[in-house]
Amino acid sequence: MRPFNGVPFMLVCGMLHAQSPHPIGFADTLLYNDSLHYSAFGYSGPAPLFLQAWFPLEGTIAAPVGRPDPGNVRFSELRKPALPSALQPVYEQLVFRMDSAFVEYALRYPCEGDGPIDYAPYTEQHVKDSLFALGTHAYRAALPVRSPRPVIVYHHGSQGFSDENVWMAEHFAESGFIFLSCNFHWPLEGRSYGYPLVWEPDRSSIRTMLRFARQLANGNKVFYIGHSWGAQEGWCTLHELGLADAFISLETTMEWKTDTAEVRDKWPHVLEAITTHSYPMPILMVADTDGRPPFPMFRGVKADIRYLDPKQPFVHESYTSAYLLRRAVVGRFAVPDRHVLDLQFDLHTAMLGELLAFLQQQAGIPVVAPHHRKGDPFLRFPVPAPADTTGR
Length: 392
What we know:
Elements: E1 3-4, E2 7-8, H1 9-14, E3 24-40, E4 43-56, H2 88-107, H3 124-132, E5 138-140, E6 151-155, H4 166-174, E7 178-181, H5 203-217, E8 222-227, H6 229-237, E9 246-250, H7 260-266, H8 268-276, E10 278-286, E11 302-310, H9 321-324, H10 338-363, E12 378-381
Parallel strand pairs: 3-5, 6-7, 6-8, 8-9, 9-10, 10-11
Antiparallel strand pairs: 1-2, 3-4, 4-7, 11-12
Helix pairs in contact: 2-3, 6-8, 7-8
């Protein structure tokens, strides 16, 4: 495997994770949202949810058929589920659109700049294929039917994709959680990727995923993490009792807004939800606002909310590991914004530590307190009490 600054890429990714006794399993399965109809590419029926799962492995790791050793799942292998023949053309079209979104949002442009990166003599496709050939930390294994572990459901952003946050999935799975993700977009003929099946919050797909998570958790806690549009969908849905035991909202893009009329015009469903409902679970909000939490539009929300605001600039896409994966090609392809990517990676790593500590607390399991070598990178609210340095 090609090294990154002399260090194998798997070890670079491993810096995101604390030492843990849990090797990671990966599995995929298929759910159907019976409340949402989908028709395209030869299929007509309930909307398919192509579910991906990362989870702690128990016992030994079995070698897959045709390979002499277990072998980590490569990024490209995350997108090779066994499907009914009627859904294979649908999934092929979905992967084509996910690949296009990955190139557009994670490869084409540097962090700070509008002009595309010049990869000559290589193409963007070469870079994508090189990254997707890299190994993850997971091993393919059977998803348990019931589990004694807390379960997380992740909802991607607009034009995002189910495996956009592999590092987050691995981080939680290594720490004893099950992490579920799926497509909340479906490919449509003649429509851009992300065009909705219905012009309203897709509460039914979220309910489908959370009900599956409840069944899998077998009495343990179920949590929801959403980024961008995925966070907005969480605010529109999670006021319903019994759906989730905690909610992590990663930058809805409303956090720094102060003009209620603008918000009502652009995010009417979210504004209605946060001004008319209460939320029966603890909520952690993370957003870079160039200000101080709490965030203006969410000051009056009836909920137990904690806030994190990165002190340094943290771009909207840096909440996803897909955006930061480009760091792995240093030395082979052009990375003109390497320094900025490194800073974003450090903030992303710090964020994962905060998310883990928050959900460990909600799950009632021992908390691994985040350790920030260069000082606390976040502004917080409520403001934590100062540490007692008197020895009393």
